[in-house]
Amino acid sequence: MSFSRLRNSSQSRFFRSGNQADARYCIVSVFTSRPSINMTQMYDVVKLVDQETKRIIPTTVNLTTAVNTKPYPLQDLSDLKEQEAFVVRDILYCLQGNEGDYVRFSKNFNEQDLRSILEGPDYRIAKNLDVTLKDMTNRLLKYGKMYYSLTKFVEVYDSQFYGATMQRLCNEIRDFLKEHDQIVLELERRFMMDPHFSIGILNQLIEESGEKMRTLYEIITSLNEVNRSNLATVDDVFKTMLKTIKEDLKHDDSLYMQTELNNKTRIIKGGIILRIVQDKMERIRGDQTRFEALKKTFDRISLPYIEMLHKWLTFGKIDDPFDEFFIVEQSSKNTLINYDSKFLLRKNYIIRQFEHRELQRKVLLTGKYLDVLRCLPVDIVENDTSNHKIESLETDDLFFYVEQKYLRANKLVTELFMKGYKFLTILEALKSTLLFSNGVFLNDFLAHSMSDMLRDKSKASLSKIERNFEKTFRPQLMATPRSKLVGNLVNINVQSDNLYTFLESILNIQQIDAEEVFNSSDLNSLKRYLNKTLTKNTAEVVISPLDNYLVYYLSLNIEFPFPLNLLLTNTIITQFQLVGRNVMITNVVEKLLESSWKEINYQRFWCFNFPNRSIRKWILRLRYLHSNIKQFVSAFHLYLSFDVIEGSFSEMETQYQHFASTADSDFEKYFVSLQKWLNTMMQNSLLMNETLVQISRRMFEFVLTFHTFVMSLRKNLILLDENLFDQYASKLGEKQFDPEKNRERVIKMKHIINEYEKKFESSLNTFVQALNYYSRLESSSFSVLAGYLDSILKNRK
């Protein structure tokens, strides 16, 4: 059968177009489909285009007449031209994603399996076809496979469920398929009309659209592979989380704290699609024609992403209804809690332009700053003097655009905090309040509350403490204009943990082997490792008999409203509290020593002229030891108040003034400077070193024990002298003066004073050695305190 005979055959049913079915739908193509070789019932698959939505709607129509469509046996065709005519007709079918008489879908192709139809069918060719024709047919059939795959991809993924970017990609594919249909329609026309048309000409003409089809097919193949790999199990998510942490910890910044740890997603959309297209662009960059064509496609499908980026950088708003952007807003009933984690980076949604961590940081912070301003009566649009808006992610202006938006957001939020809220003034008020740098506030409060400081916290009157605070501390804060805001918000409470026990339990945490963590095969293995570590740490916490003293639990607390709580976070306030509690304990101990100093120097029994010289000498030794202990506490207090708090605050204040004078200051520097100041104070206050915490704890326990001992000696002094005994015998309940017993008392008292002196010198010497050792390893400020304490030791010698 020749080409002309095939063209005139009544069984030839190819694309008949241009006839309108009704006012809304237009027939764009018709072709005959035979689902099986021996099938006698033919179907016309009619493609209608919806004039309103421009979307192609495939439908199937039964032919009214049943015809025997069993193909003519190829072995009976001796003319190669006739074989070519039949196979070209089938190829034209296949180029529309169908099968013909001599070219059928592979037996391995399953039209019910999603993976199979998205990959596209392989074809099997009639075995009696000429070898030369078969080779050419195989080359052309790859376009049929790709056409089928592209068509099914659009059918599956053209949905809002997969996001706007995916829909735009599907639209690009659909537009290409329309162009391809027109090419095939023209090829069919030539096949019907041109007697010289051949399979070679068909191959040459189809190559015109073949390159773009191949590019689109490779993109959707990559998307399908990513989609399959993202069907993650719990262990997959765990491994991905560890990988994310491990990668981020390589960098010396805090960006990993704002990264979504589970990068796995069950749906490919947004940034993932754009990244795959970009990867393809990178691979074909050497082919300028293909590259430019794909770049135009990328620009069109990335428009939703560009719009989301613009709204985030201009208004601090996440307008991402389909979760496609690389910044995600965490859902929370209270957005004021954990604001640091309100917006997180989704690393697998990051496109090539934002791979650099510094750029990620700037994009994230720009929107976060503007989001703060959106919650306040600030007109963000009015403050946007730049009308610049990018139209492509591939433009060189992108980095300039981000930088411009970043500087604008920094300027706005800096003015809000530093000028509007006078943030440095608030920090000064916190220093005076939570860190007790203004001693007057604390002195008045302690003057009314000292009797409760050494009581068991469960027996102390909290209501009395609160009344004393309201009576003395708060009024003085409110009387100072700079401290009014803090004065309104601050309150006093009893913490659940002893300061030293709390610090030791934290500092005693065993250092975790990062490699062992990262090598954990699954979540259960990590849990077993962490439980083993925590169990060991819990067992090592030592409980002191003096741990229940109220002074160890008392603390000032403050909660700032939005937006001040963005800088003055719970973590920041906790650091203030820890340093302040340490200062309060030192103040209380110093006040107690002042009272016992007055006792041993001015109370009449201590000033009595005892006839026994050894008693007088013992009293002098006790006063000297007390003086040394008081010097130790005063030196420690002086070190905390001036060398640690005031010294480091003045450095931070200088930094803030420098930032304010810099036009393009980075607002994050203010927070970093604040955090650095607090970290420095925590470290220099001996609160971040387990050994120094334990030593200082034992020193203060020793001081409190010594104070209690001194305050209990009045009765012993009366019993040591007969005249005093006669005056106060009735009050003491003693029957008679006993010289023999007194000698035993004096011996015991000498022994006790000897033990206290040895203990003090030994403990102070250990403290000085530890300070000198850690001053070389951690902080040179320790050597300042070591110098103060060493002078006390030298004076004793």
Automatic annotation (TrEMBL):
Name this polypeptide is given: Spindle pole body component
Subcellular location, record wording: Cytoplasm, Cytoskeleton, Microtubule organizing center
Organism of this sequence: Komagataella phaffii (strain GS115 / ATCC 20864) (Yeast)
Keyword Cytoplasm listed: yes
Domain (Gamma tubulin complex component protein N-terminal) ranges: 88-419
GO molecular function, one term: gamma-tubulin binding
Domain of life, per lineage: Eukaryota
Family statement drawn from the similarity comment of this UniProt entry: Belongs to the TUBGCP family.
Gene Ontology BP annotations: cytoplasmic microtubule organization; meiotic cell cycle; microtubule nucleation; mitotic cell cycle; spindle assembly
Domain Gamma tubulin complex component C-terminal residue range list: 427-790
Pfam name, any one: GCP_N_terminal
Keyword entries, A-Z: Cytoplasm, Cytoskeleton, Microtubule
Principal location class: cytoplasm
Assigned GO CC terms: gamma-tubulin complex; microtubule; mitotic spindle pole body; spindle pole
Lineage, highest ranks first: Eukaryota, Fungi, Dikarya, Ascomycota, Saccharomycotina
